[in-house]
Amino acid sequence: MSTFSLSLTKDSGTSVASRQSNISLNRLQKSLRRDVGRAIADYDMIQDGDLVMACLSGGKDSYAMLDILLNLQKHAPIRFAIKAVNLDQKQPGFPEHVLPEYLRSIGVDYEILEADTYSIVMEKTEPGKTLCALCSRLRRGNLYTYAEKIGATKIALGHHRHDIMETLFLNMFFGGKLKAMPAKLLSDDKKHIVIRPMAYCREQDIAAYARLKEFPIIPCNLCGSQDNMQRQEIKKMLNDWEQRFPGRLETLFNSLGNVAPSHLLDTSLFGFRELEAEREQALAALPRRIDALNLG
User: Fold this and answer.
1) How distant, in Å, are the alpha carbons of 271, 278, 291 from that of 275?
2) Which SS3 state, helix, strand or coil, does residue 24 take?
3) What is the total count of domains within the chain?
4) For the chain, which has fewer Cβ within 10 Å, the N-terminal or C-terminal residue?
């Protein structure tokens, strides 16, 4: 085979692979955009004139969230602004240049906040305890403060449906609560509305999209360095279920939006004590209904 033929074959193979990659990327983007659009519509997450503060960690989920929100912003029937925000928590070895370079390259308005929460977390957390709770609380406080400063009307986080299901089982197994992660939340002080536009998105779709988009992923070496964390155990359990029983997680996730309070045990959600009175009212009305039928 001539050198020209070899070159042509190589170029053709590269071209085919490139086309296939573009097709996969377009398909994933449409799927994620559809899921995000549906979540925004279902929970009325974004209104006309909103300033959405998109919180970036440097992980695949928040990168994908920002990318999809920017895409939707161009085509949405309403006008809303986006400001990307990252909190540099001063973890040793954190590549501070990565996010600013990426955000500049895509031309988005952004801010890098700096707060040494890492030292506080390491000092206050007892040996053997997980770092996530305190780290999350400190991060949330800094982000809320900045959101108030810039007048952000929505704070967007990149949690997806797998995160929501993990939280459900974490609360059930370790907290004794039937509670997941809300798609839309009003903060305790009533000042901030937190939204999770990726709530309907599957983690495997986000991971594939991040690979094809070649986002500059920054691993979290703080919580990721801890072994035997409860969330990791829950994640293993859910992944095992999905492998052994395909479709189970889809059904499980759908159940979170199809709740029957009368079939649970929370007396604050359903009036169990009023059932006798309700029965008596129904029985008293029964003869009138029978008479009405006979007259007809």
Assistant:
1) 7, 5, 25
2) helix
3) 1
4) C
Q: If you average pLDDT over residues 112-131, what whole number do you get?
A: 75
Taking the C-alpha atoms of residue 129 and residue 127, their distance in angstroms, rounded to an integer, is 6
Q: Give the tokens for residue 107.
A: 């031309």
Q: What is the pLDDT of residues 49-96, one digit of tens each?
A: 999 999 999 999 999 999 999 999 999 999 999 999 998 888 888 888
Residue 132 placed within a domain: yes
User: Comparing 286 with 281, which gets the higher pLDDT?
Assistant: 281
pTM for this one? 0.85
* Range of the structural domain that residue 222 is part of: 15-227
CATH at 81: 3.40.50.620
CA dihedral 99, 104, 106, 111 (to 10 degrees): 60
Strand partners, 51: 81
Q: Determine, yes or no, domain membership for 279.
A: no
